[in-house]
Amino acid sequence: MHLTRLAFLLAAAVGLAQANHWVGTSPKNGKPLIDLLYASIDDLQSGMSEGTFSAVDLTKAYLARIAEVNPVLHAVIETNPDAVAIAASLDAERKNGTVRGPLHGIPIIVKDNIATLDKMNTTAGSFALLGSIPPRDSTTAAKLKKAGAIILAKANLSQWANYRSSNSTNGWTSRGGQTMGAYYPMQDPSGSSSGSGVCSSIGLAAAVIGTETSGSIIGPSQRNSLTGIKPTVGLTSRALVVPISQTQDTIGPMTRSMKDAAYVLSVIAGKDQYDNYTSAIPWDTIPDYAAACIASDGLKGAKIGIPRNAITASATNGPELVKFNQSIEILKSLGAVITESADFPNLAEYRASSNTTNVLYADFKYDVADYFKQMVVNPTNISSLAQLINFTETYPAEDYPDRNVDRWIGSMNLTWEIGSAEYWAAVQADRYLGEEATILGSLDNYGLDALIIPSSLSPGFAAIAGSSSCMLMDHVIY
Ligand SMILES: *[C@@H]1O[C@H](CO)[C@@H](O)[C@H](O)[C@H]1NC(C)=O
Ligand SMILES: *[C@@H]1O[C@H](CO)[C@@H](O)[C@H](O)[C@H]1NC(C)=O
Ligand SMILES: *[C@@H]1O[C@H](CO)[C@@H](O)[C@H](O)[C@H]1NC(C)=O
Ligand SMILES: *[C@@H]1O[C@H](CO)[C@@H](O)[C@H](O)[C@H]1NC(C)=O
Ligand SMILES: *[C@@H]1O[C@H](CO)[C@@H](O)[C@H](O)[C@H]1NC(C)=O
Ligand SMILES: *[C@@H]1O[C@H](CO)[C@@H](O)[C@H](O)[C@H]1NC(C)=O
Ligand SMILES: *[C@@H]1O[C@H](CO)[C@@H](O)[C@H](O)[C@H]1NC(C)=O
Ligand SMILES: *[C@@H]1O[C@H](CO)[C@@H](O)[C@H](O)[C@H]1NC(C)=O
Ligand SMILES: *[C@@H]1O[C@H](CO)[C@@H](O)[C@H](O)[C@H]1NC(C)=O
Ligand SMILES: CC(=O)N[C@H]1CO[C@H](CO)[C@@H](O)[C@@H]1O
């Protein structure tokens, strides 16, 4: 039975390359059509500029593919009913001589917690937000649209970005069902950007956007074999993204190549009047990250360290460490200078702390209420965490109590609030634990450019430091 299912997925993947997924039955201009499972953004731009296919062709092909695989994978919650019309207007613009940039006419899927002011819902996978209407696009969606991207669909996720239940499953939402990974029948897709990971891995869009509070981009990027970038908190605006925590949330790309992630990051990064964390960005012009991907000798002389004590202290399993060790050899062959034991200076204190749990409890209670209050239309009238708990416990499709609401109870239990003296003490403790005690401490002590660590061990350090991390080749680079 498992084999049958796998065969279906593989057949579907092969079918993608065939002409019947395109408008028109044969290649135009004598150029071969592209297999969307492997196409890069550069490939898609070449095809559109050469007239081999249009943004409308591309959009229809991706929508057909979503319809084909979604009944099994549940990676998509909703598709955009206006996607083909938007593609047509971008095609007209291109014909007229305007190409806005590398994302012009490129279909992109966003996680269902990133608000769009269009015919799609934004719900974090919950009926509590169904039919809610934001005052405008989230800044991330607005920047993508301005760059000429087509927001094709909303990706399924772990409900509330995995900030509701202590006993739910990765990739489950009441609205979207259970997301499955595409590599193996019934595969756990990891989370919370579960649908984003699966959509990207199987080529349901040219690029996908996820969000991370602690591990939600890196985890599914590892599990679905992607490049995922978890930007420094504040590099990408969180305005009108269903929140967990203003201290730790960040928005980033999940793609099949580093260069595609770089194209997307350059578009979505930047200062934003609606998210004051972005005011810490040191540049007025965001770097052209994709241009930096061209250098073939980019790692020559790069000083990279391994925080070995964090690896030794963990229970990470064998296969991941085998791959991790192989990646180190690849980095060496590309000219990187590796420091084998760039130990974190105060790992013990990091491991003893649970400050982050309390910071998230305090942030969520305030931030989620603030999100509901910003809605122009809010059909459930929820405006506090207490009301959200009541709704979730009484609305049958929310699957309570089988999936509990323990994180929210923990949040209600906390005896202090965001902005209190206790709050700032916990945030300051986390900054120390994620910076001097671990990531920055090792970078400084050993004079390094970067650290690498197995992906599954990486999220906690970067989460509390608010620092960037990037999943690539089975390991994470800080
Ligand atoms: C094409 O460009 C012309 C001149 O800039 C403009 O007037 C026209 O509205 C454009 N048409 C489309 C479809 O973008
Ligand atoms: C949201 O979902 C509902 C129910 O599925 C649908 O009727 C509606 O068109 C969707 N979009 C918006 C913006 O409400
Ligand atoms: C953002 O604004 C809030 C409220 O005014 C303030 O407490 C916080 O320090 C500001 N954060 C940054 C990074 O400027
Ligand atoms: C990976 O390399 C380290 C350092 O050389 C070594 O101690 C460890 O046993 C290796 N792990 C695996 C699974 O090969
Ligand atoms: C928070 O971190 C500080 C500094 O490491 C530590 O003293 C304190 O016990 C931690 N509190 C909790 C609740 O973990
Ligand atoms: C929300 O409030 C409006 C206006 O007071 C009311 O008409 C509506 O019935 C309320 N909806 C719910 C689900 O309570
Ligand atoms: C709790 O939810 C139920 C069902 O939706 C509703 O009838 C009731 O008024 C709610 N109670 C509170 C305190 O909001
Ligand atoms: C989840 O936890 C709740 C208690 O918090 C329990 O009632 C429920 O049975 C649990 N669900 C599963 C699937 O174990
Ligand atoms: C919340 O507080 C109650 C009462 O003190 C306690 O029984 C429960 O375990 C707490 N739950 C969480 C998730 O913190
Ligand atoms: C686009 C799509 O297929 N959406 C589906 C997501 O999952 C829910 C629940 O299984 C379906 O009702 C939607 O049709």
From TrEMBL:
Name of the protein in question: Amidase signature enzyme
Source organism of this protein record: Calocera cornea HHB12733
InterPro entries: Amidase_dom, AS_sf
Swiss-Prot/TrEMBL keywords: Signal
Superkingdom per UniProt: Eukaryota
One family name in Pfam for this protein: Amidase
Native organism taxonomy: Eukaryota, Fungi, Dikarya, Basidiomycota, Agaricomycotina
Signal peptide: 1-19
Gene3D superfamilies tied to this protein: Amidase signature (AS) domain
Membrane-crossing segments per the record: none
Keyword Signal belongs to the record: yes
Residue ranges of every copy of the Amidase domain listed in the record: 57-461
